[in-house]
Amino acid sequence: MALKLLCLAGDGIGPEIMVATQKVVAAAAACHGLDLQFEDREIGFAALEAQHSTIPESVIEAARAADGVVLGPVSHNAYPPREAGGLNPSGVLRKELDLFANIRPATSVAGLPTPTGAPVDLVIFRENLEGFYADRNLHSGPGEFMPVPGVAMAMRLVTRHASERIGRAAFANAEREGRKRVTAVHKANVLRTSDGLFLEVIREIAADHPDIAYDEVLVDAATALLVRDPSRFDVIVTTNMFGDILSDLATELAGGLGLAASLNLGPHHAAAQAQHGSAPDIAGQDKANPTSLIGSAAMLMAQLGCPPVALSIQTALTEALSRPATRTADIGGPLGTTAFTDSVIDLLRETDE
Ligand code: IPM
Ligand code: MN
Question: Ligand 1, closest atom to CA 77?
Fold first, then answer.
């Protein structure tokens, strides 16, 4: 089997955590005899300077052609306007590759304290193309507009098709991974039409999975419950903006957003993506924790039919995080990016010998 991954390092700490990720994934691939190639292309500020766009069309084409994409963090808040090439690479790739599901596990690590002391083990299935986030959906118009000065309006798009896709993905994951409950998080008591449709579709899918427990929680209540008792959640399925917000909360409760992996998934493509930002303030100082991108790449390898490679990466990563001596500074350890990466590779090779 041979695989080609398109690697888009992005801005800030992106290049250094991409190097770390490629070293770990390459080591795991070698342990399992997998022929793995990386293709590096620029996005973000580097692409803007060279090609007048933060995500050139040639990169989108390369993403379509690759077996998988590894997407680093981008500083899209600092980009110029869209008209000047300041596109959001994350939103563009989700739209162009039809990456309708954003899969975000929140998993605490034994030995690594969580803010509340409670363990966390859940996964969020976030609809990735609709809702208020009109910069990436194929159907709606401007998304946001200002009909008259001083009045801004935003459109929220929820379709049966998108709700079906994310609902089916969530229940299929629960079946495949042995998870027992799917919880739909919504605000249908206010957003009666849009979240009413979302719940109507999810209930239909739930009825087709009688062996999986199903319930529904209002999004405001869900934030309180996540802090009070994260164990009451197993799989969360929700719309775009709620998933964006809940995934940061859940992963922080699991030990830190900087540890959080994510996979953007569509019918024909998949993109691993760090959940955190580009952290320009620590770029180039060997301080960045590469866990999020490495864990995301492990999810991608599992998706691409290489679960042994994914397991090797995740096992070594979890072991390194569980030991104070092999942690990075953001989680109280002594190591820089390079030394942490080498520790993960050493553990990986020990485990696979
Ligand atoms: C995320 C991010 C992005 C999103 C932003 C940076 C565009 O918040 O992936 O969680 O929600 O689309
Ligand atoms: Mn976010």
Answer: 6
Q: What is the pLDDT of residues 78-103, one digit of tens each?
A: 999 999 999 999 999 999 999 999 99
What is the position in ligand 1's atom list of the atom closest to the CA of 88? 7
pLDDT in tens, 133-151: 876 665 556 678 899 999 9
CA distance to 54, 101, 109, 203, 215, per residue, from 207 (Å): 44, 21, 34, 6, 11
Q: Which residues contact 9 (CB under 8 A, 6 or more apart)?
A: 15, 18, 40, 42, 43, 72
**Residue ranges covered by each domain of the chain:** 1-98+260-353, 114-254
pLDDT tens-place string over residues 163-216: 999 999 999 999 999 999 999 999 999 999 999 999 999 999 999 999 999 999
Residue 51 CA, chain-centre distance (Å), reads: 27
* Residues marked as catalytic: 133, 187, 220, 244, 248
Class of domain 1-98+260-353: alpha beta
Kind of pairing between the strands at 263-265 and 270-273? antiparallel
What spacing in Å lies between the alpha carbon of 11 and ligand 2's midpoint? 16
Under a CB-based contact definition with an 8 Å cutoff, are residues 32 and 306 in contact? yes
CATH class of 114-254: alpha beta
